[in-house]
Amino acid sequence: MHTKLDPDDDLEIPEFDFTNAIRPGRIDCKSGGKTEICLEGTVEYQLRLLPSTKVIGRFISTLDAWPAIIAAAKSGRSPRTLSLDAIGRGGERWHMAAGPFLVRSAELNNGGPHPNGTWPDEDDRPDTSLLDWSKAVIGRRARKPGEKTEIFIDGAVGYALRLIPSNKVLARFESTLDAWPVIIATVEGGRSPRTLSLDWVAADGFTGSISAGPRLERWARHSNGEPNPYSDRAALPSRHVAETSGVAG
Questions:
Q1: How far from the centroid of its chain's Cα atoms is residue 181's Cα?
Q2: pLDDT, tens only, 184-241
Q3: Which residues contact 177 (CB under 8 A, 6 or more apart)?
Q4: Under a CB-based contact definition with an 8 Å cutoff, are residues 164 and 194 in contact?
């Protein structure tokens, strides 16, 4: 079906000058201009410590939170220990941002310069026309066969392999590199992965779970240098779709 539109003689379309237009997706922010983030239903914002959840600042507006976040980071406190939350009328808590991303956002929203400078023009972008994109792999980091991966938790002085739900500690490690083979050996020895949890341990004895269950086993094997079971998409089994045929009455 085709619809034919008759021209409207009374409709006048003005000519626009797009030479001074800003490309879509860019925000024209004046130098030093501050940005306020408002969440509907929020009565206050709280700056919280991780992982203790201690509140170190309360604000009516995020405009008051930005300089406090920046000052906390500059005072020597690790950005990874900071979290900004929104508090609702009924006491609900919504997490907004945390870690280095929170500090960068606070600096930018407080009027600081954009971390990447000015927006690049298309003429300033590198020429990629000669690149062979057929050999490109999206979203994957090149890793040598057998290469092991160490995971660091900021503030951790050690790591522990714990039983669930008894909380009995099976082993302690100074590095996650030492934990991976023990986790694999424990599972291959007959213990269910669902009963294992790898925790990080702080200097004051506070602990937190890094991963647990079957995901911990897969993580340990991959970080210990074993091949990623999902790296070769072609090796995955094909899906079979059942086909049905109807008989017309």
A1: 27
A2: 999 999 999 999 999 999 888 888 889 999 999 998 998 998 876 655 544 444 444 4
A3: 148, 150
A4: yes
Residue type, 183: I
Q: Is 228 exposed, middle or buried (0-12, 13-18, 19+ CB in 10 A)?
A: exposed
Pairing of strands 82-88, 55-59: unpaired
Per-residue model confidence as pLDDT tens digits over 10-33: 555 556 565 665 555 444 556 677
Q: What is the pLDDT of residues 123-134, one digit of tens each?
A: 555 667 777 777
The torsion angles phi and psi of 167, rounded to 5 degrees, stand at: 65, 15
Residue 190 has a pLDDT of 93
User: Nearest Cα to 93, choosing from 85, 82, 101?
Assistant: 85
**Paired sense of beta strands 93-98 and 82-88, if any:** antiparallel
Q: Over the chain, what HEC string results?
A: CCCCCCCCCCCCCCCCCHHHCCCCCCCCCCCCCCCCCCCCCEEEEEEEECCCCCEEEEECCHHHHHHHHHHHHHCCCCHHHEEEEEEECCCCEEEEEEHHHHHHHHHHHCCCCCCCCCCCCHHHCCCCCCCCHHHCCCCCCCCCCCCCCCCCCCCEEEEEEEECCCCCEEEEECCHHHHHHHHHHHHHCCCCHHHEEEEEEECCCCEEEEEEHHHHHHHHHHHCCCCCCCCCHHHCCCCCCCCCCCCCC
